Amino acid sequence: MTEQTSQSLAITPIEIKMPNVPELKVIESLKELARIAAAGQLAKTKNPHDAFFIAMYGMELGIPPMTAMRTIYSVNGGAPTCSGEAMLSLLRKSGKVRVKVPNPGEVKDSATVTIERLDTGEKGDFTFTMEMARRAGLVKEKSNWEKYPQMMLIWRAVSMGAKLLCSDIIGGLYTVEEIYPDTPVDETGAPVGDVVEGTIVEEKAPATRQDSKPDERIPDPTPEPWANAERIDFLLAEWGKKNIQASDVKRILRFDDIRNYAKWNTIFTSGKEAFEYVIAKVNEEMANTPPATPKKSQWTAEDLATAETLHMDYDLADNAAALALVQAKTWAEFKNLSVARSKLMTAAIARKIPMIAYGARYIKVVKGDKETTYVEFTTPTAIRLYSREALRNLGDDWFLYVETWEPGQAYEFAEDTMPPLKVAWEKKSNYFQATSVTVYSSAPEPA
After folding, report:
1. If you write DSSP's letter for every residue of 250-271 in order, what string do you get?
2. Taking Cα atoms as reference points, which of 62, 64, 56, 57 lies closest to residue 81?
3. Nearest Cα to 42, choosing from 63, 60, 64, 68?
4. H and E: helices and strands count for the chain
5. In 3D, which of 202, 161, 198, 150 has the Cα closest to residue 176?
């Protein structure tokens, strides 16, 4: 073989680029830091595994580990969340956007935040209103939506704009209330207390082996986990047949979050044991509690009138059908309008009843080189439609109407002389997806 041939067959080394993964020594350092922080008072979470992944997640977003463990939370071990204040800080520190927030003293029933992308030139105004907060069940007695409504409106408007224009910056972050609306938050939008096994608590008391209180019982040996969404929904439905509401269950079991499945598994060895325990406690309370003095109703005539139109948000024939769904004779049986609306939504979701959309928003999300667009219907719980073809197939009028839609814009069907839509759906991991869309021509005019 000649020298020239030998050179032509020589193996040329190539450079293989690895993903941007921290070195092992960095990972080991973060593990130790997470362990120490979770054991002390610094980190919100007391789970070292959650603290470690929060620190890693923060690094990807450009947030120092210690700051990430104080400002990013994983409630119920689910999607990462943060306070509204932290989300605003993340946007501004990126250097890619200009954010203008309103003066809280000038905010009344709505807050509008203006976000401008300095890299792409995109710009939008994003508004969140008290009516939207009420429809979502956020305005509750003694909550910060009553104490600091101006700041809470601003944080939700910031989050709305961040998702629509800055999804590449926030990396999938949500504010705490968006994912866990029952979690109490302060005026910055951060959860109150610590995150222990996914639940926000004021303080962590040591567990004992006494049986006098359900949250102090430690099954021995540790059973296999049994609690999940389907089984807890089944238990709630069975308790409901005996007029035991979810709020009663939370009070009896001293739960901050009834969806904390880890806590169910810690306290009870089976769903049967949980069911019988709650029934026994309710019977005990009824035997020992004298007749209560009737409380002054929180219902106004306007609220009662609104409640009688709640069925219009669902594929229900009339008000009587809605009351039958929640097993009530009148809406006044519930504490207030917000509770009634929440009960109806829970019952409708449990039975997969189609929802009626009187409007929609067209959304575009850009992550790196990938662009996703979808329609989000204005329904009691937002339902996504990833193909506009279903809307085009409704007829020529819809075809021309949908073709005019622009990303980030909201459209009211009634105002645009388009009829409302009946939307069937299915539950995904963290959102509702439309399975079919039809014109709801028989629906009454919305109030």
Report:
1. HHHHT-S-TT-HHHHHHH-SSH
2. 57
3. 68
4. 19, 15
5. 198
* Chain mean position to CA 422: 23
In whole angstroms, give the CA distance from residue 169 to residue 207: 41
The C-alpha angle 241, 242, 244, rounded to 5 degrees, equals 100
Note the pTM of the prediction, 2 decimals. Answer: 0.40
2-26 b/e (C-beta count within 10 Å ≥ 16 → b)? eeeeeeeeeeeeeeeeeeeeeeeee
> Is residue 73's pLDDT more than 50?
yes
Angle at 80 between CA 78 and CA 86, to 5 degrees: 150
Instruction: Find residue 375's DSSP bridge partners.
Output: 362, 385
Q: Helices in 166-225 by DSSP H: which ranges? A: 167-170, 176-179
For residues 178 and 344, give the distance between their C-alpha atoms in angstroms, rounded to a whole number: 20
Neighbour count for residue 43 (Cβ, 10 Å): 28
Q: Which residues of 151-189 are buried (b: 16+ CB within 10 A; e: fewer)?
A: bbbbbbbbbbbbbbbbbebbbebbbbbbbbebbbbebbb
Q: Which of 191-205, 281-295, 325-339, 381-395 is the least confident region?
A: 191-205
Percent of the chain at pLDDT exceeding 90: 12
Using DSSP, state whether 321 is helix, strand or coil: helix
Q: Determine how many CB atoms are found less than 10 A away from the CB of residue 33.
A: 19
What is d(CA 411, CA 424) in angstroms, rounded to the nearest whole number? Answer: 20
Position 40: which residue type? G
Q: Which of 104-118, 129-143, 297-311 has the lowest average pLDDT?
A: 129-143
Among 201, 187, 194, which Cα is nearest to 153's? Answer: 187
- In the chain, the amino acid numbered 4 is Q
